[in-house]
């Protein structure tokens, strides 16, 4: 995840010198979109119950999704 002051970008300003837009390279833009999607998923699932790692492994083995 990027920190705001680490994002490589260029600023577009109007005739008054006010910043009106930001130019990002496509890789940075796509990474920011992925980060936003990840944060949205975490927020949506915030209130879901959790299980221990051991219980998860046992459940995956029981369902045949993980081999011993």
Verbal overview:
- The chain is an alpha+beta fold and 68 residues long.
- The protein has one domain (4-62).
- The protein is built from 2 helices and 2 strands, in the order ββαα.
- It has a two-stranded antiparallel sheet with strand order 1-2.
- The two termini are 34 Å apart.
Helix content: 40-55%
Helix-strand pattern: EEHH
Q: pLDDT average, as an integer? A: 93
Strand order of the largest sheet: 1-2
Stretches with pLDDT under 50, minimum 5 residues = none
Global geometry: elongated
Structural class: alpha+beta
Report the β-strand fraction as a percent range.
15-25%
Radius of gyration: 21 Å
Total DSSP E strands: 2
Report the span from N to C terminus. Answer: 34 Å
Total number of distinct structural domains: 1
Number of helices: 2
List keywords for this structure.
single chain; 68 residues; two-stranded antiparallel ribbon; alpha+beta; 16% strand
Record the SSE blueprint.
Elements: E1 9-13, E2 19-24, H1 26-44, H2 53-62
Antiparallel strand pairs: 1-2
Short description:
The protein is an alpha+beta fold. It is built from two helices and two strands.
């Amino acid at each position: 995840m990027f920190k705001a002051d680490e994002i490589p970008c260029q600023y577009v300003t109007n005739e008054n010198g006010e910043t009106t837009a930001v130019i990002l390279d496509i890789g940075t833009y796509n990474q920011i979109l992925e980060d936003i999607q990840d944060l949205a998923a975490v927020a949506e699932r915030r209130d879901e119950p959790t299980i221990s790692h051991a219980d998860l492994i046992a459940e995956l083995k029981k369902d045949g999704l993980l081999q011993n």
